[in-house]
Amino acid sequence: MMKTWMIRAAGVAAAVGVLAMGGGRAWAGEGAEENLALKKPVVVEGDSQGENVPAKAVDGVPTNESGWHSSKTPSRLRVDLGKSYTIDRVAVYTFYDAVRYYQYTVEASADGEAWKQVVDMSKNTAISTAGGSEHCFAPTAARYVRVTMLKNSANIGKHLNEVMVFEAGKAGAIELKYDRTVLLGGGTTLRFADSHAQAWDLKRTLLLRDWAAGKDHVVVGAGPGALTAEQLGRVGFANPSGKPAGLYKAAAGPDGELTPGAAVTAVNPPFDLSENARAGRAKVYEVHGLAHLTGKDSPLADGMTIDFFGDSITWLNSYIEDMNAAIKAGEGSKDKKVTLVNRGINGGGVLSVRDGSGGAAYPGDSKQAAFAAVIAADKAQVAVVFIGINDVWWRKTEPATFEQALRDIVASARANKTTPVLATMTVHGERPDGKNADDAKIEQFSDITRKVARDTGTTLVDLRKAYVAYLQNHNAALGIDGSLAIAESGILTYDGVHPNAAGAGLLADLIADGVYRALKR
Question: What is the pLDDT of residues 49-58, one digit of tens each?
Fold first, then answer.
């Protein structure tokens, strides 16, 4: 099964697509590669959403801005190449946001009736990337190629940005319009035509992964001049055998063969990128809270009610739904009647939680009474309070007011014999280098939550610390020039604040861990 790999380069995750070669196969060609599927007729089995029509999957634009979207499972797109070719490589580009993965298969047919599966990604769990995945297989006669989209890990949508098909034995000159990776190993010989005249996008990278000295050979032209200096600077080796894991610049020999050169290191990194640092950060957020809360020794009691107080992040209900699903399926919790109550207030702040709100509460736009009255009416055994981003962002709540309100909330919970759990806020912007506009104030208010929890003996869920650790491990991709690509959002949130599927899952695990620890005290 071919995969989209997450390259660990100098301690930083660099997401790239994969072109896999193996079995001693050699490639040769003269001109630039031709995409046989470009603007060819397509038919689909499945619906189309809005302007995301099937033709956009073969328009030559493999980005999120152009593709076919369908809500059906499975969804299938068939390309008619116009005549029979012998093909041996297909590139598949799916929607990418640094958190989701897709499962799919690719089949080829000479007549549109008898189909041969040439790519099996039905068990894939590797994250989609802008580089897509380039799959190689034994030469196969085909006029028709079809892609069957089976699963999207984020939601029910199936999103095929582009499918490209290439004729056997015509690797030709290297074109670099999008990030690409060649997966070597097993004794592979790649012979590309002279490529110095090709117009490359010099912001893109060609990565050669898992190269083995003496076994794998990548040759461009007949000498070092087959690539310009600028082009050669965009070619790298990831994790070559015989060298420490990481990213290496390519060097061209007198015969045009490419080999690993100098190691690439990050230029002025804003935080520690070593593997030891990464491993330490992972321990902060890999807590497996849902497994502990719902497992064989679950501390959840039959008939228990847990209230969740917060702002729009809670009001959206996504992480609560994840927790509820885990409780209903857990070995130690599925036979217990546990009620999770969403008390989130859209746009709410700490005073809205403590004193109540005239509207905007879940569900819909409901009114909500003061915290003390709500937990009493709900007969809540546990109350999770995850609040603060609006206090920092636009409510302009004073730090002293924020602290006093949290102390009042904890006191009300204790008076009602409800176990409180306090959570720090997460992010307003996903840069992990401290350059989001509100980072300093978020840290200040998170420190207040930590202090209140410490002073009152309340269980703390340090979401802020976990989010920063996760983003430092997942939102800094090392480039071949030593730069770091850092996204403003799309890793754990869809807008810098509100959780996407990955963010909701992380929140569920972290908050479940807090509830577990609180009940075990």
Answer: 999 999 999 9
